[in-house]
């Protein structure tokens, strides 16, 4: 039997603050008993894996019960405070003749108490994991980094969450959000996640993180199909669309609405319109592809792809769903204000002559929209309507009116005008 397989090695873990991690590296005998909180289910037995010859352990029900935070450093936020986990173990070989005490520290972690802290906590972990130097004093990181290094990290982050990375054009636009018109290649932590963007109430990272989250949860397939240009400015989108045919549209991430995506399209007079951004809340109600399907003003995905050839596979089935109580579920539909609706789309709106209706006796419809069936013709022929002439004044000079023929002729004339 392999010696390793006969060992029983217990491992237990403890939370450590940044200062405690520094003390541990200076004097592990003194610092190994320090702790910054309590972790439940923090012990386990390492198991030998014959396949790779390694010992491993899994903590499946570990839970942080209590955490002690350090005093704040200046303007440091709670989501910037770093902790780590200390893994400790002790085992002996040869009847306790050789006793080994081993330990190691995890990568930094951030402790949060609410989901709204996730964004900023992720920024802290990303910056530390990406830019910390080997052998550093816990948890020192550079205050600023070169844009090219940050761009690589953003690309890898976006790819891991959405399945497709960022193009050079995407990254160029993202850089403009950080630098504006400044000629610089260095990005500071403050620029990244402390200072708000010009004219906005959110930071660069909050803007990028919200787009990444929206894409992952609602737009992943469309992003991978390259149906979304995404990272392009409003002005650039208008330049691209201004010389395209009416109904050409593109999808871009909003500059003003955090976690929003908007539709820009070419109108009847070559003007470019921008729809108010959709957010995650909207897509929980109706998906982007179905919203695009709803809008007949949208015809070609930029530069010239018919929209159905791109989005039809993502449309929700239009088959009526009858609920258990016999009711039919109503469908929501995205519409545009009347003054933005093209003439072709107006003709297809409900109650237009081209609309086909069910012949339901309870429907409120114009008779001109209904075809003349044989039953309707027989009904008119059998109706005794000539008695209506009794109510006409005697001095009208009309001796007799064939009301039946008058109604039939009126219907025929109306159909000719409509056709």
Automatic annotation (TrEMBL):
Matches recorded under InterPro entries: p53-like_TF_DNA-bd_sf (IPR008967), SH2 (IPR000980), SH2_dom_sf (IPR036860), STAT (IPR001217), STAT_linker (IPR048988), STAT_TF_DNA-bd (IPR013801), STAT_TF_DNA-bd_N (IPR012345)
Subcellular location: Cytoplasm; Nucleus
Entry keyword set: Activator, Cytoplasm, DNA-binding, Nucleus, Phosphoprotein, SH2 domain, Transcription, Transcription regulation
Cited SUPFAM superfamilies: p53-like transcription factors, SH2 domain
Cellular component, GO, one term: nucleus
Start and end residues of each SH2 domain: 223-319
Molecular function GO terms recorded: DNA binding; DNA-binding transcription factor activity
Protein family per UniProt: Belongs to the transcription factor STAT family.
The protein, known as: Signal transducer and activator of transcription 5B
Species for this entry: Biomphalaria pfeifferi
